[in-house]
Amino acid sequence: MEKQKWEFWIRIMSVAREYLSLDKLSKEAEDHRNSAEKLFREEHIILSTDTILERFSELEDLNKVEITAEIMDNLKECIYDYVSNKFISAIVLGGLITERIADNLLEEKSKISSTTSSKLSQSCKINILGDEEIIDPKISGKLHQIRKIRNKYVHPKQNNLNTEKDALLILTKLIDVVYTIYAKPVEES
Question: Does residue 184 register a pLDDT over 70?
Fold first, then answer.
């Protein structure tokens, strides 16, 4: 990810982390929210501050999952694209991330060889992951939904697409998929 994006990411995560830990009605929370708005204006981001802080708050729990650095970097970039109003980029990158996840799961847990897997469509990969019970049916359904939304933009055949809504849908489903597949089990003491 570009240095500028990383700097933005670090600054906004710091502000968001503080904001989320405070009583939303306090003066301090208002100051942090105003700092966030200033950062967004500097980056020419026009989404509502509350929407953006909500998206970043969902990412706070990503520390609880074990995913590759590549997937984590791509996920951060996907969120950055979304909050920067680069909705099509967020959609396409979200689809790419799910393809990486499917490839990794097939490589690590499937009976399918990597040579065979590299020749399969994303739809086939998701079906194999479901058939071999590597992922549950809900996750399989979400991966298929992400794939279909991404395909609408990569292979455009329709007019009047709602890019902001589709980008948010992909992000929401993608984050849920990542948590479900990669969350560390809670160890009892």
Answer: no
Long-range contacts for 176-181 (Cβ within 8 Å, ≥24 apart)? 176/142, 177/98, 177/101, 177/139, 177/142, 177/143, 177/146, 178/62, 178/65, 178/67, 178/71, 178/75, 178/101, 179/61, 179/64, 179/65, 180/136, 180/138, 180/139, 181/101, 181/105, 181/135, 181/139
Integer Cα distance of 143 and 135 in angstroms:
10
175 phi-psi bin (left φ>0, alpha ψ -120 to 50, beta other) = alpha
Task: Indicate the pTM of the whole model.
Answer: 0.72
What are the residue boundaries of the structural domains of the chain, listed by start?
Answer: 1-64, 85-183
* pLDDT over 70 at 2, yes or no: no
